Amino acid sequence: MASTQDIKTGLILKLDGSLYSVIEFGQNKTARSAAKVWAKLKGVDNTRTIEHTWNSGETIYPVRVERQPYQFLYKDDMGYNFMNNENYEQVCLEESLIDFPQFYRDGQEVMLVVNTESDKIMGSEIPNSIVVTITYAEPGVKGDTATRTLKPATIDTGATVMVPLFCNEGEQIKVDTRTGSYMERVKG
Fold first, then answer.
1. 8 A C-beta contact, residue 149 and residue 165
2. pLDDT digit string (tens) for 143-156?
3. Is 149 within 8 Å of 167 (Cβ atoms)?
4. Model confidence over 168-177: pLDDT tens digits?
5. What does the alpha-carbon distance between residue 64 and residue 41 come to, in Å, rounded to a whole number?
6. Distance of alpha carbon 77 from its chain centroid, rounded?
7. What domains can be seen in the chain, in order of their start residue?
8. Quick count: other Cβ atoms within 10 Å of Cβ 117?
């Protein structure tokens, strides 16, 4: 059995008959009472986001999952279509199971999270950062670099990202998919 000491970001737990993924967690210690462990949880099989608190050392019920590499093929009316890289089997997932759908592009490799108990796909994970090409950006004004001014830029996935003024159309940049923010320019 697992206890609250085993909680980590990304862990999937069974709580009150539903599955939740740990987004963040922490520990509260006070002089008068026992330590408590809290976690912010995102529903895997529902759309709820909750916070839950346990007494330190209490039993938790993690769900064993596997992350399998799949290739994103395309999006249509049915949802997002992926292909298994090993046996070429295709699966379709609804948008609620997709993390950060604005950053998916055709042919990109992603990880699908599979519940090993039921072989059910529980969601998809994109890498924490991706390299994209700017398809449209207004030109920056020369000399306007005294402050960290940002401008909107459209990238090749169709999403809009705020970038520094020196970034121009056709350049490659690295984007943090968790926050949707610009990280750095990529030398190509």
1. yes
2. 666 677 888 999 99
3. no
4. 899 999 999 8
5. 17
6. 22
7. 2-60 (2.30.30.30), 65-125 (2.40.50.140), 129-186 (2.40.50.140)
8. 10
